[in-house]
Amino acid sequence: MEWNPQDLHTLSQCFVNTLSPSPEPRRRAEAILSDFSQKPNYGLAVLRLVAEPNVAEEIRQAASVNFKNHLKVRWSPAPNSDEPRIQDAEKEQIKALIVSLMLNATPRIQGQLSEALVLIGKHDFPRFWPNLLPELTGSLQKASQAGDYASINGILGTANSIFKKFRHEFKTNELLYDLKYCLENFAAPLLEIFLKTATLIESAANADAAALKPLFESQRLCCRVFFSLNYQELPEFFEDHMNEWMTEQMKCLANSYPALENSADGLALVDELRAAVCENINLYMEKNEEEFQAYLNGFALAVWNLLTTVSQSPSRDQLAVTAIKFLITVSTSVHHSLFAGEGVIPQICQGIVIPNVMLRDEDTELFEMNYIEFIRRDMEGSDLDTRRRIACELLKGIATNYKPQVTNLVSVQIQNLLTSFAANPEKNWKDKDCAIYLVVSLATKKAGGTSVTTDLVDVQSFFGSVIVPELQSQDVNGFPPMLKAGALKFFTTFRTHIPKPMILQFFPDLIRFLRAESNVVHSYAASCIEKLLLVKDESGQARYTSVDISPVLPQLMNNLFEALQVPESEENQYIMKCIMRVLGVADISREIVGPCITGLTSVLNKACENPKNPVFNHYVFESVAVLVKRACGKDASLIAVFEINLFPSIQKILVKDVQEFYPYALQLLAQLVELNRPPIPQSYMQIFPMLLSPDLWRKASNVPALVRLLQAFLKKAPHELNQEGSLRQVLEISNKLVSARSTDEQGFYVLNTVVESLDFNVIVPYIGQIWSSLFTVLQTRQSPKYIKCLLIFMSLVLVKHGSTNLVESVNGIQADLFMMILGQFWISNLTRITGFIETKLTAVVSTRLLCEYQMLLDAAAVEHWGKLLNSVITLLSRAEQDRVEEDPEMPEFAENIGYSATFIRLHNAGKTEDDPLKDIRDAKEFLPIRQNYYVSATLITAKLFERSCGEEEGILFQFSLNLGHHAFLSNHYSHSQWF
Question: What are phi and psi of 536, to 5 degrees?
């Protein structure tokens, strides 16, 4: 794209139209720009438009946003992206222009160009953009001489963004090389501007706020760059100039700045600078404790004094949190004696902890207005950067070395708070909330489990005197609801400490709280029930079973579904997770199935209209799957009930192409197909042709679910599919899957099911093409995963259709190909097989080959025979835990997950693994059956080896099995004299 007046006019008009409130001209302009972006030099043309002074500001700003987004996609496209890459010549011109344009731009455009510069730097700096840092430092010095703090802050902001990588990336030689380069070029100019600005602040302390603001912003940016450059390790330059840095940073904490602090925005700027200083000294305390020691006492006192003056305003939370974090680091370090002075810990408790743990109006507002965020902070532990949590973490830190003092002091505080509440419950309810919060937050989690413990109170006594009155409150909506939420949180946290009879006594109260109007309260009640059902006794058995919840099950399910009707809880993930958990434990009768499947399909149909909450929706499908699984496992006649209720919803997902739910719908279909006995109803067979559509298989997230459904059809209706001529299409799909590295395992799943479900005479017309395809891929992809899948597939062919069919069909591709596969891949990779069924399958098949495959008993194959036996014994002698892949309980669904291209498995609709060798409990048992054959075969082979190679070699062969294998064989087969 050339830069000329015509292009300038066209681009300008397009950017004007992108700002149009009318959709038609906006879409047309976006389409034109998209076409232009495919042409060379488009990014350069847009950048020049941004620099054109005669173009309106709003057009240049729109162009700067477009330029940034263009670079994001085209500067360094992903390897599998179809987007064209910006050519090197254009890149060099952009890099030559962007710094000067950014520094001379207006603030809004400067921000966009700075982000664009950082995008370039992420890929090119410093190796492919060596001029960037010299250009920035040169511009910084010029701006400093001119006192141009707009440019200074622009440069520092850009440097801050570029250097952030030193905070997040792992330490490597390459990263340290880049850090060294940055330090050599930027450390000295950074200190120079930091000291100069500090001097200006001191001399202008009484100046107006407008003059001070850019100076404080400059100091804040200097501190953030300091943090990045010091994050990996203490650089020599900063160690040599530590006194200058620490002296000025101390002033930021100790001095007051009335001209700024008297206004809200000015105070926020000062707090941001102080928070940056607190992060810096915390970093030094964590990583450079010895070098920082000389400054520790002064900073600790400054932070202490600062915290005593910081108000409870939410705008000052960041400063309070970062300051307390510094004290936590000190409390757990070798310098914890700073807290040992008389009266220090009580002052911390009274002056810092209790004020920050007490509820504020903002917390109450969050409880009422944004229950999801409140729960994430309060229940799920995402509140580490809140005052309440960080204040408790400070107590935990001090308790590391002063536990008795902290425990006694906090216990007294808790009793005082409860006494205050008892004196005036309506007025002092926040004191009781504070007491409960302290007990819960200071509880310590036992290693390797979910159980917690506390020394602050006797849990059962506290539960009976403080928590039970809240649980037994007949008005679930009574004031204050936050106390009820706190009581439920305590119940949940200490659920393992409360005796089962006591919990069952209050279980109906938990069910009552599901009807609370407060979203937080009924969410906490649901979460408490859900987590109670996960509790296990010391024996590992579930503490609460279907027997325990059967008496209250109808009311429990009714209240759970009613809670989903409460405004803002229509997609409450805590309620739905509880439904899923209850259905996974309860005894599902026909009376329960009806209302549950009606309620779930109603929720599902609403979610189909606009899928918003992926966590909630996942639990909806898990709830449906577990209901189907447990109900139909008990009463097969209920399959028809589920088909009537679920088919309309599944059809809606498939027809309307609700992509977020497509894999879920396919998994539910597979579950229903597998539950049916052959012949499966025609309603399912009508779905099958859809599975063969190539378009469906193009979306990566659909593939595992499609394979799962295809396997179900192959198992339940193999002959019908063959009669309809669909087998060839199925094999074509499997071939495409195997050919792609990302889906090869899925392709083998299909082939395995074909081999297991169909007679060999049905497969014969295709078997040659199957082997050719698999071995062609093997030539270029010899990954452990692929070879493992190939060995398992070949083993299945032998088990299902005999060794003769396996060997002859493989050799039909090329003479003696099977022996070559055995020698090059099978023997060496056999020991890598994992999984109980897979290990048993391949071990048994290998044993059969040792006994049945005549070529292995030939003198020429004696080495292969010995090595194969060696591999079998190695495989079977591994520790049991190394060989068995246990099927875990349902994993926790990631709460922060969103809709993406990643397949998400429904645990409760999971495929039951078929064991092709059910009669053999353990592969070790298969060896004694054929032990005599082993003895004779071994001796015969040894004699053959001796005859062809000499007596000495024959004797050596008999000792080719290592001593560990002899021990293994002796342990398991002691009655065999040969062993």
Answer: -120, 150
